[in-house]
Amino acid sequence: MKKILIVDDEQISLMMANHILATEYQTVCASSGREAIALYESERPDMVLSDLNMPNISGYELQKMMEEQFKTSIPFMFMTAEKDEVHDTKGFEQGALDFIRKPFRADVLLKRVGNILNTIDKIQGLSRAAFTDPMTGLLNKVSSQEEIDVLCRHTPGAFMMVDLDSFKPVNDIYGHDMGDKILIRFAEILRSAVRTSDIAGRIGGDEFVAYCQNVTVEEVIAEKAKYINEQIIASAKEFMGEDMAIPIGASIGCAFSPKEGTDYKTLYLKADKALYNVKQNGKHGYEVYRTVPDSERKDVQKSGNLAQMFTILSERNPAKGAYVLPDEQFRTTYRFLSRYKANYNRDFWILMMTVKSESKDEAELADAADEFGKILGGCLRQSDVVTKSSKNQFLVLLMETNRSNIKVIIERIQKKWEQNDFGKSCGFEYELDAIR
Amino acid sequence: MTLATLKKFGADTNDGLMRCMNNEEFYLKLVKMGIADERFETIKPLLDSGDLGAAFEMAHALKGALTNLSLTPICEPCIEMTELLRNRTNMDYTGLYNKMKSERDRLLSMEAEE
To answer: How many Å apart are CA A392 and CA A390, to the nearest integer?
Structure first.
């Protein structure tokens, strides 16, 4: 039920207006401007009906004070016994939505208040439509960007890019209605993983962003990633059955503000890099973007402490399977191995694997390639190096082995791929050569 | 206080009742509050001392209450007085005040005779 704050220093007028409006609305009454401000803060009414001529604080002054204090536009309607139209002009200029002259008829007051509340509803509906994603109710791309951009400039926090893993097969296998259900549930999970004071939005098909105020430690991101993954897997099983074989989950790339930036674009780019690494390393997890601080480097250089250097150089929490590297680092590794081979004549091999699909569905191919990358990484040794060189192609550096061993590895990959859902519709080809 | 008494007094009870969503009990409660308003008394020294600004504020508030209740015989002198005070007309307000006060007292007497 809509709530109206009625303000009038004249007791009989106040009681009469309250008696009329209470038949259709929830009402709260104040007999002075000060009392009205206190009541607005605690009750947050949908509109204010105020007498214009009051001692100490007039109706106009009250509107101005409240809007300044609460930093929002408050729908005001004034009651006045004045017949002077100058009052109306001044009131409308200040933002009053309507006037009603005393003494007023009950039916007229109800109709005019009803009109105002309907108009407010329409405006709020339009605002919601303009700022939110209609399917999930989260902020849309533009609003997410704008709101986070404002917030992160002055409030520390964690910027998260959240990507729903393996969403495409849901649409393909179970249909778009199921896909929509998963997206809506995922948005609910994301909303429950952040606080009401945080910002969450949908910026693309299965891409979401969130900004969590005052979250500056990795442990919190780890907890959120765990919670989101557990919840979406449970929801997917609830919707599609316990035997559902789609590896659905969430990958999160995070960048902390102000450490990594104080604007949306900078944080987005860094969180996106972190997200890329999560995707490369098997998805369903998180990574926090870290810039190695110059001070850390200088300290090591100054001290020449090898133990400290090991700390920086060492791989943190090495994952099982092959060493997955971004494209650029893979190239550096290749060049080094090429030099090493030239000097010591060792058996280093490069394997190119390309995922192929008969259908021309690009999105399906991309999802299949992601899945293939996981299988590939799992089938290789820790000493092998892999990178995703294009959307459906992988390069692998294989150390200290020979063609027959490599054939065994490829057969293992083939077997695992055929057991995967994507293996039914997509195949792969490969080329093998020695490092040159 | 009854509707019959108010009608006999000259109040536009249909109008007053309509403002109260035709709730007779509520209307009569407000009428009792209206005629017991202490401003009928406190406005007199303001008029006598020539404090026209303060007297206007009080007359204006009183007029608002009385017109809401449609107590026409009391409203008429109150409205006239309010408009003169709004323009800060420097005059003797005794006649208008007495008219307003005597009408209010007449209604109180009628109520007492019920």
So the answer is: 5
